[in-house]
Amino acid sequence: MDFGFSPRASELQDRMRSFMEQHVFPAEAVYDRQLAEADDPHALPPVMTDLKEKARAEGLWNLFMAHGDWGAGLTNLEYAPLMELAGRSIIGPEVFNCSAPDTGNMELLALYGTPAQQERWLRPLLEAEIRSCFAMTEPEVASSDARNIRTRITRHGDSYVVNGRKWYTSGILDPDCKLIILMGKTDPDAPTYRQQSMLLIPRDTPGVTVLRDLPMFGYTDRCGHGEVLFENVRVPVENILGGEGDGFAIAQGRLGPGRMHYAMRAVGFAERALQLMCERATERVAFGGPLADRGVVREWIARSRIEIEQLRLLVLKSAWLMDTVGNAAARMEVAAIKVAALEVAHQVVDRAVQAHGAAGVSDDTVLARLFSITRALKIADGPDEVHLRTVARQELARYKKSDPKAERQTADSKAERQSADTKAGAA
Quick check: 183 and 135 in contact, CB under 8 A? Predict the structure, then answer.
């Protein structure tokens, strides 16, 4: 394994680091103030428009996109440290047009979209002319198991009709959101992993109703997390992404890079929290000396540094594996980084909150927001327990003795999963 970065990747890191210091960090307070003063809590603050224009002019734009001629063409290993740098600010990824859910949605359109779908949706997303959202999670079922999804997609002549209820549909409250990518069932009687499909739904389609905006630990996200009702929502059949029954395989293809992005962003969260903790420890005096002289605080700092370095290496290994052997072959590592990244980030943020005392739980620093984000992300994009299950299953498989009867009983489901993983790996 060679984790050395190419000259181009190193140069991009230097440019992004400089951009963050000169433009993004100083704009955080302005962003928050403009958002608080706006009539619409989901409207884009003017300072973000300015930052995007600057980032585009600097060539720091769409760096996540590795498919075809759509983006910068970086490998996962080259892009990973860039997302860490952007992740040191809550507003960072959006500045570079590298924020979720748009990144994942653009990758899906680049990989599976028809030329017409790409022209209508992918191009304006890459230009940041519009935003998008992804509707998968449902309130009535455990959506960590995609087999539970109840939203129905029914073929009626030349149209598909959608009925169902989704929630935590991130991004749908943004006034610039024009596209919903929805996952639902087209054939509940098909083989388990061929029941789901993905559909492209224009945001203004009749029958799409946002019932409420859902906060996370009391924080209202600018892009919003909507509970959405789909009542007889009708779209043309050409709005299917891929084909009927391809939804599960498409979702799997989205997960590897997406989780690497989340994990490196979490490394950025942890680095920001550690920086704030160190600054606080050297400046704050208690019981006759600076906090930095206290053994317990030094232990917090040392453990945080060790854990961050371990996490970064694990994520870089996963990125390297995705580049060299494919997403499917790196499945265990991709699952592992989802768990490890948020555990480490949350723990480091928690220590930084403790070092700040009352200031740590206020909105005077970014720590309270980071605390809520890192905790929520242990559930989002698949709860930790699902990923632990994946890691344990693959680890135990190395020790299990052959059982012909059990192998016959599970052959069909294994074949289905392998088919989905193969498509994802090819993606």
Answer: yes
- Cα–Cα nearest to 426, from 324, 335, 326: 326
Q: Which run of H or of E encompasses 28?
A: helix 25-37
C-alpha 161/C-alpha 156 separation (Å) is 7
Q: Dihedral through CA 201, CA 203, CA 206, CA 209, nearest 10?
A: 110
Residue the block writes with tokens 């190193």: 10
- Which residues are bridge partners to 197 per DSSP? 184
- Amino acid, single-letter form, for residue 284: R
Other CB atoms within 10 Å distance of the CB of residue 264: 28
Q: Angle CA(133)–CA(341)–CA(381) in degrees, nearest 5? A: 25
pLDDT in tens, 115-155: 999 999 999 999 999 999 999 999 999 988 888 999 999 99
Q: How far apart are CA 425 and CA 329, in angstroms?
A: 7
Query: How far is 223 from 171, CA to CA, in rounded Å?
Result: 4
* Beta strand 159-170 pairing with 225-236: antiparallel
Over the stretch 371-421, which tens digit does the pLDDT of each residue have? 999 999 999 888 999 999 999 999 999 998 766 555 555 555 555 555 444
Question: With the C-alpha atoms ordered 358, 363, 367, 370, is the resulting torsion angle positive or negative?
Answer: positive
pTM: 0.90
Query: What is the pairing mode between strands 208-213 and 225-236?
Result: antiparallel
Identify the H or E element spanning 260.
Answer: helix 247-283
Measured CA to CA, the distance from residue 77 to residue 322 in angstroms comes to: 9
Tokens (6 digits) for 300: 């917090």
Measure the CA–CA gap between 394 and 402, rounded to whole angstroms.
Answer: 15
HSE of 304 in the Cβ direction (CA atoms, 13 Å)? Answer: 27
Any idea which residue has 């590897």 for tokens?
256
Between the alpha carbon of residue 367 and those of residues 26, 170, 301, 363, the distances in Å are 17, 22, 16, 8
